[in-house]
Design a protein that fits this description.
It is built from 4 helices and 2 strands, in the order H-H-H-H-E-E. It is mostly helical. Strands 1-2 form a two-stranded antiparallel ribbon.
C-alpha cells in the first residue's frame, strides 16, 4: 500500500495538525517506509507462533471482593476523613458551585 501526500494531509486534518509542506513530505516518506515494513512482516508465516499479550509472564492478582459494612472504626472519625481534603468546613467537604 502506498501512502500519498493527500493521505497525510487528510490524517493531519482529522488530528487538527497544521503541517508544513516539508513535514508533509517527510511524514509521507516515513509512513510509506512503515507500511513497506509491515507488508514484509505480513509475508511471514506465523502459524506456529504463540500469541503474545506481554513479553513478561505477568498476571494481575486481585483480592477477593467482599462486602463489609462501614463503621466509624473502619472509616475513621469525620475529622480524619476530611483532613486531606483541599477545603473543608466543619466535617463537610467544601466544593465549588457547579450549578447556577
Amino acid at each position: 500500500m502506498k501512502i500519498t501526500k493527500t493521505d497525510v494531509e487528510h490524517v493531519a486534518r482529522l488530528a487538527r495538525l497544521a503541517l508544513s509542506d516539508e513535514e508533509k513530505e517527510r511524514y509521507t516518506q516515513q509512513l510509506g517506509q512503515i507500511l513497506t515494513y509491515i507488508e514484509k512482516m505480513s509475508a511471514l508465516n506465523t502459524d506456529n507462533v504463540a500469541l503474545t499479550t506481554h513479553v513478561l509472564p505477568l498476571s494481575n492478582v486481585w483480592r477477593e471482593d467482599k462486602c463489609e459494612p462501614s463503621t466509624p472504626e473502619t472509616l475513621g472519625s469525620p475529622e480524619d476523613i476530611v483532613a486531606n481534603a483541599p477545603e473543608s468546613e466543619g466535617n463537610l467537604f467544601k466544593v465549588k458551585k457547579v450549578i447556577e
